[in-house]
Fold this sequence. Notes:
This is Pr6Pr family membrane protein. This protein has helices spanning 21-24, 31-53, 58-61, 65-85, 93-114, 129-153, 161-167, 169-184, 200-232. By secondary structure, it is mostly helical. Helix 4 (65-85) packs across helix 6 (129-153) and helix 8 runs antiparallel to helix 9.
Amino acid sequence: MPETTPSTTRRGAPSAVGAPASAIVPAGRRPFAAAFRALVALAALTGIVLDSIDSDDLGRLFSYFTIQSNVLVAVSFAWAAHRAWTARPALPPRITGAALLFISITGLVFHFVLSNDSSGFSMTSERTPLESVANQLLHTVTPLAAALDWLVLTAPGGFLLRHAWQWLVYPLLYLPFALVRGALLAPGTDGRYPYPFLDIDLHGYDGIAINAVVFGLAFYGLALTLVLLDRIRPHLRGPRNRISPLGSGPLK
C-alpha cells in the first residue's frame, strides 16, 4: 500500500513531512528472498568446493573468471540474504548488477564459446563426476538463479547507464591479470593461460588484442542490455512475505 504523508500533525508531535520513507514505513523481513538467495550462495560455494577437491593446483583454479565470478555471487547473495532476513535495506544496484553481469558472462561464454566446438575456443574435455556437478553449478545453476532473482525478487529501475561501463572495470582488469600470470609461468605449463582466447602461444599479442576488443564490446553490449531491460521490465509483486514494503530499498 503506498505510503501517505499527513499534511497536519498534532501540536508538539514530529511532522512526517520530509522524513525518509524508511522512517515512515519500516522495512519488513523478506524470508522468501532470503531463503532463495541463501540457496544461490550455497550453490556457488558448493561448486567452488567440489572443483577445489578435484583440483591439484588451486592457484590455477582460482585464476579462472568462472571461479572468481562465483566467489562474488556467493558473497553478494549471502550478504543480500542476510539483509532480507533481518529487514535491512537492500544492497545497492551497482553491486547486485555487477554480480549479475559477471555471472551472466560466465554462463554465456561457457555455453556459447567454451562448450561450442565451432567457436574456435572450445575447452571440451573428460570430467570426473565431481567436476561435472561443479561445472553445472558454476556455469548453469548460478547464472540462471541470479537472473531469476533479478527478474522476480528485484524491483526494476535500479540500474543506471553509468553502471554499464563501471561494471566493465573488473573484466578489463582480468585481461592483464591473465596475461601477466601466463608470462610468469614456464612455457608448456598446463593451464598457463586460463582460456584459449587469451593464449599468447596460440594467437600472439595481435590476436589477443583483437579477441579482447571483440569480447569487451560484447560484454559492454550485455551490460547495456541489462540496464535497458531493467528499465522496461515489469515490477512483479508477490505475497507479502516475498516483497518488502515500499521504502525498504530498490532490491525487494
